[in-house]
Request: fold
Amino acid sequence: MDSLKGKTILITGGTGSFGKTVTRRLLEEGQVARIVIYSRDEKKQHDMRLDFKHPKLQFEIGDVRDPDRIMRAMAGVDMVFHAAAMKQVPACEFFPMEAVKTNVIGTNNVIDAAIFHAVEKVVVLSTDKAAYPVNAMGCSKMMMEKLMIARAQASAPGQRTVLCGVRYGNVLYSRGSVVPLFVDQIRRGEALTLTNPDMTRFLMPLADAIDLVLHALRHGKSGDLSIHKAKAATIGDLARACLKLFSANNEIKIIGVRAGEKLHETLATAEELSRSEDLSAYWRIPCERGHEFDKYYVEGRPEVGAIDAFTSDNAERLNVSSIVELLKTLPEIQQELGIH
Ligand SMILES: O=c1ccn([C@@H]2O[C@H](COP(=O)(O)OP(=O)(O)O[C@H]3O[C@H](CO)[C@@H](O)[C@H](O)[C@H]3O)[C@@H](O)[C@H]2O)c(=O)[nH]1
Reply:
């Protein structure tokens, strides 16, 4: 990956599972000069430092909510992954202003600092919950995307910084998500708590999410959103796949759809797909026409209306055996099952 040769990469929220995995990948590729991990939690940074013990890693304690701090941390940086976020639906539902502070204002601070320091590229990480949002987490992430797009379009002549983003769905086995919960329930011999067996979600191994983000880092143009054409499954099949994987026969208890949840997620809206570019595994969603107010209102797109949104309901559907095969590729499951 020549474009990363000698570069300094800053990762906000860098001690999370995305941050650690992308760090490992970049260090293995050996091209980058330095990786700056910018995050709030000293304990997580300490653990990551001990885990990696790598001279190219630099740790900076700071919050994206603090504009002065992120401004100082950004000096000398070439590229940014902006992964710091409040991402839990219930927490954002109860404390929406906190989601605004981190996901919206924090992103604005990161963009300000990046533009000030003439950073080459910023990739912001978003979620399918930002498309046709129904909860505060999705709304704040949608605002993050809108902010990235507006700042990309409003760039001053000569502005060097390319601002772009990615949107992906549920990352399999991410902390607090349903698969580790089901595995835990299986291990304890408890009933699997299923919200609604017909609910669907995009399922993405973390490795695919990293590929998507690195794709955006290499190819994203200013204002672009890159979206992976992910596969999806029903939650009923996901539960059955977990049981099959562990040859278990725990009961399944239906608990009903929780507050702030959708039956199906959307990765790309109909409006976005009508202006998308098909890049085989990905879609490139360029931003709307430039920052000219008049054109926004008078130039329409006849294609809108003829295209369906890309949802976890109409995406390629994984069946129980293909979910089992997918789960078996995950390092966490391999460890649980004692296979490598
Ligand atoms: O006890 C449970 C918990 C969850 N589910 C279902 O499992 C699916 C996935 O749930 P979960 O793993 O909690 O993920 P989401 O609520 O969809 O949100 C995750 O995926 C988002 C990306 O879409 C991230 O932004 C969020 O941080 C992350 O929690 C959903 O259909 C849930 O209704 C159950 O059936 N039983």
